[in-house]
Amino acid sequence: MINIVVAGPRGKMGYEAVQLCERDQDLHLVAVVDSKHNGRTLNELEGFGNQEVPIYSDMEECFSDHKVDVLVDLTTPAFGKKHMEIALTHGVRPVVGTTGFTDKDIQELTRLAEEKELGAIIAPNFAIGAILMMKFSQLAARYLTDVEMIEQHHDQKLDAPSGTAIKTAQLIATERKEKQQGHKDEKEDLAGARGANFEGMRIHSVRLPGRVAHQEVLFGGEGQLFSIKHDSLNRRSFMPGVKLSIEHVLKLDTLVYGLENLID
Ligand SMILES: NC(=O)c1ccc[n+]([C@@H]2O[C@H](COP(=O)([O-])OP(=O)(O)OC[C@H]3O[C@@H](n4cnc5c(N)ncnc54)[C@H](O)[C@@H]3O)[C@@H](O)[C@H]2O)c1
Ligand SMILES: O=C(O)C1=N[C@H](C(=O)O)CCC1
């Protein structure tokens, strides 16, 4: 049994992670961390069935009261880093799907994980299909170096571009040199029209009700187009990756950023 704490249980992803623990015999949900409802139990909240799991608003108190192996953090960009620091300081391995980490955050958290000799995972996207999209895009960029991305998410998303789009751009950047794309004299008549610029790659972020998580990576060459697309149609699509991460993080003694590092 792996003792789990989920942070953000009332959120769209946190709710699915709680249900994953309920379904999976290897995962034991010992407590949850929520910004509200301190001192109550999950079964007192609407939608949680009979899960008599204690709710804490103070993560440190939660880790003092329980023996925890893994923290699954699915909160907001404002709290992801702080929660990882608290977990590592208390000897708990974090598996974090929360997005919005900067390069500096990842460097600092890597140092902390190594100092504590603990595994940690930051996964911008837990869906296996999205990992394949990123890996295939990295390969394609070796041959087709003009790239644009369109990522689409629901309209409650706080960060843009998505963590997945940034990670895809970082992987592609390992295979192609920075280059200016489009006409050298192009000019935006409306600010933002050409999207965000990552080493010359353009990233376009769509936010609409009804969307879940979608990304298309578009490659252009002389007389040809190539595109790779992934759609998450519901949040269950992320749960096999959460389980995979929980299993892997127990065997690690450093921070891994991106599930592409865990699958061949
Ligand atoms: N890695 C992935 O595959 C993946 C997939 C979907 C979403 N995400 C990311 O996961 C995060 C959550 O997404 P969501 O769609 O579930 O968002 P959401 O807004 O539905 O849920 C976030 C939850 O976090 C809670 N929260 C905020 N601050 C907190 C704190 N200090 N302590 C405890 N709980 C706190 C909120 O109350 C809310 O219930 C986002 O950063 C999103 O980008 C990642
Ligand atoms: O719903 C979200 O928010 C998602 N965020 C991740 C990202 O930023 O890439 C992954 C997919 C869903």
TrEMBL record:
NAD(+) binds at residues 8-13, 97-99, 123-126. SUPFAM superfamilies: Glyceraldehyde-3-phosphate dehydrogenase-like, C-terminal domain, NAD(P)-binding Rossmann-fold domains. Signal peptide: none annotated. The active site is at residues 153, 157. Transmembrane segments: none annotated. NADP(+) binds at residue 36. Residues 129-262 form the Dihydrodipicolinate reductase C-terminal domain. Keywords: Amino-acid biosynthesis, Cytoplasm, Diaminopimelate biosynthesis, Lysine biosynthesis, NAD, NADP, Oxidoreductase. InterPro entries: DapB_C (IPR022663), DapB_N (IPR000846), DHDPR_bac (IPR023940), NAD(P)-bd_dom_sf (IPR036291). It is found in: Cytoplasm. GO terms for biological process: diaminopimelate biosynthetic process; lysine biosynthetic process via diaminopimelate. Its EC number is 1.17.1.8. It catalyses: (S)-2,3,4,5-tetrahydrodipicolinate + NADP(+) + H2O = (2S,4S)-4-hydroxy-2,3,4,5-tetrahydrodipicolinate + NADPH + H(+); (S)-2,3,4,5-tetrahydrodipicolinate + NAD(+) + H2O = (2S,4S)-4-hydroxy-2,3,4,5-tetrahydrodipicolinate + NADH + H(+). GO terms for molecular function: 4-hydroxy-tetrahydrodipicolinate reductase; NAD binding; NADP binding; oxidoreductase activity, acting on CH or CH2 groups, NAD or NADP as acceptor. Catalyzes the conversion of 4-hydroxy-tetrahydrodipicolinate (HTPA) to tetrahydrodipicolinate. NCBIfam families: dapB. Belongs to the DapB family. Homotetramer. This is 4-hydroxy-tetrahydrodipicolinate reductase. It comes from Shouchella lehensis G1.
